[in-house]
Design a protein that fits this description.
By secondary structure, the chain is α/β, with parallel strands linked by helices. It contains 11 helices and 11 strands. The protein has 2 domains: 2-85, no CATH class; 93-172 and 182-309, no CATH class. The longest helix has 16 residues, at 192-207.
C-alpha cells in the first residue's frame, strides 16, 4: 500500500533526522485524497523523496501538512508531470566518506566509474576532506563528518584518482541552474550542512567537470571500463541507486558485475544487493550496506553521517 511506504519513510528515515518530513509523511500516510492521487503514478514514482522534492522545486509548502495537501491537490497535474519526468538524484556527497577508506585500501592509482552518478559529485573522493570521529584526512572542501563505530581501518592518505567517469539515465550538470535547483530541492529542509557541502562539491565539479554519459548502466558499463587508462585499478561503485532499477535488469547487473575485471563497491539497502547472515543493523533508522566485491563490510547511514564497521 502507498500509505505503508510513507509511514515507513516517516518512522525509519525521517524520524530524528527531519521533523518537517516526519510530520509531513506521517500526515500523508493518513490522507486518503493524497494517497489516491499518488496511487495513480507508476509504482517507482510513488516514493516520498520524489514527491517532497518536486513540491519544494515548485515552490510548494512542506512545513504544514494542511498547506501541503492543498497545494498538491490543487496542482496535481503539474506535480505529477514533474514526478514522471524526474528521479531522486540526490547526489549525496556525504557518501564519499563511506567510499573513501575502501578506495584508499585498493591498489593505487584508481580509475573510478560511478553508476547512477547524477551530477557526479561522488567522483571526487580525492578532493574532499574527511573527519572520522577525531581523525581528519585531507585538506579540501567540503569537510565530510562521519561517526565511526567498530574497527574501521582508516588510511593516512587520500586515494589517488587518475580518471573518473559516470553514467546516468539523466545526468545532471552542476553549471545548469535548473539542475542545481533540483539537487537543492532534494536536500531535506533542516539539513543546511548537506546543502552547504553540496554547493562546495558542486564548485569542485564545476572547475573540473566529470565525464558523464547518458545511458542505462548495463549498456554503459563495458564502454566505460574500456575507456579506463591502463595501469589503473578500475573501481565501479554505486550508492542508493539499485532500488530504482527494475528487478530483471538488477539481476542481470549483479550477475555481470561479478564477472568483470574490476573492483565493485556498493552502498545499497540490504534487499537491493542480497547478502547472507548480516549482523543486526543499528537501531531505529534504515541503513544501507557498504560492500566490496560482494563482501559486506559495514552498515551506513543514508546520508553518510555514520558507519558501523563489522567486517573482520
Amino acid at each position: 500500500m502507498v500509505a505503508d511506504g510513507y509511514w515507513d519513510f516517516a518512522v525509519r528515515q525521517a524520524r530524528g533526522e527531519s521533523p518537517t518530513y516526519d510530520r509531513l509523511t506521517t500526515a500523508i500516510a493518513d490522507d486518503d485524497e493524497l494517497l489516491d492521487l499518488i496511487a495513480t503514478l507508476p509504482e517507482p514514482k510513488r516514493q516520498p523523496n520524489l514527491l517532497l522534492g518536486v513540491v519544494r522545486l515548485l515552490g510548494g509548502p512542506v512545513d504544514d501538512p494542511v498547506a501541503f495537501h492543498d497545494f498538491v491537490a490543487a496542482n496535481w497535474e503539474r506535480v505529477a508531470a514533474e514526478i514522471l519526468a524526474r528521479a531522486t538524484q540526490t547526489n549525496e556527497t556525504g557518501r564519499s566518506a563511506l567510499l573513501m577508506p575502501v578506495l584508499a585500501s585498493l591498489p593505487q592509482p584508481l580509475a573510478l566509474i560511478e553508476l547512477g552518478a547524477s551530477a557526479g559529485l561522488n567522483l571526487y573522493p580525492d578532493r574532499y576532506a574527511y573527519r572520522y570521529n577525531d581523525h581528519t584526512i585531507g585538506t579540501g572542501t567540503p569537510l565530510l563528518d562521519c561517526t565511526v563505530t567498530g574497527d574501521l581501518p582508516l588510511p593516512d592518505a587520500l586515494p589517488t584518482v587518475v580518471w573518473r567517469a559516470g553514467c546516468d539515465r539523466n545526468p545532471l550538470d552542476v553549471t545548469d541552474p535548473a539542475d542545481r535547483a533540483w539537487l537543492d530541492a532534494l536536500i531535506w529542509p533542516e539539513h543546511t550542512d548537506r546543502r552547504d557541502r553540496l554547493h562546495a562539491a558542486a564548485e569542485t565539479a564545476r572547475t573540473d567537470p566529470p565525464h558523464l554519459i547518458r545511458a542505462d548502466l548495463l549498456d554503459a558499463l563495458p564502454e566505460l571500463i574500456a575507456q579506463a587508462p591502463e595501469g589503473a585499478t578500475v573501481v565501479v561503485f554505486h550508492s542508493a541507486m539499485l532500488y530504482q532499477v527494475p528487478q530483471p535488469d538488477r539481476d542481470r547487473f549483479l550477475a555481470l558485475i561479478r564477472e568483470l575485471p574490476v573492483h565493485w563497491i556498493s552502498i545499497e539497502a540490504p534487499g537491493a544487493v542480497p547478502f547472507d547472515d548480516l549482523p543486526p543493523a543499528p537501531a531505529n533508522l534504515a541503513h544501507n550496506v557498504l560492500a566490496l566485491d560482494g563482501r559486506p563490510l559495514a552498515w551506513t547511514h543514508g546520508h553518510g553521517r555514520s558507519l558501523t564497521w563489522f567486517a573482520n
